[in-house]
Amino acid sequence: IGELRSGSPRLVELNDFIRHLHNREGLEVLSFSE
To answer: Biggest alpha carbon distance in the chain?
Structure first.
């Protein structure tokens, strides 16, 4: 559990980064489909 807690911030940053990329790609796809 201690290791998971210490690595949690990294996972959160990675999640936000991936989410940001997906949102940007999604917007591009939406604007392209329109």
So the answer is: 48
Structure letter (DSSP) for residue 34? -
Greater model confidence, 9 or 28: 9
pTM value is 0.45
- Enter the tokens of residue 22: 């997906």
Residues 6 and 22: their CA atoms lie apart, in Å, by 26
Task: Give the pLDDT of residue 9.
Answer: 80
User: Whole-angstrom distance between the N-terminal and C-terminal Cα of the chain?
Assistant: 47
- How far is the C-alpha of 16 from the C-alpha of 33, rounded, in Å? 25
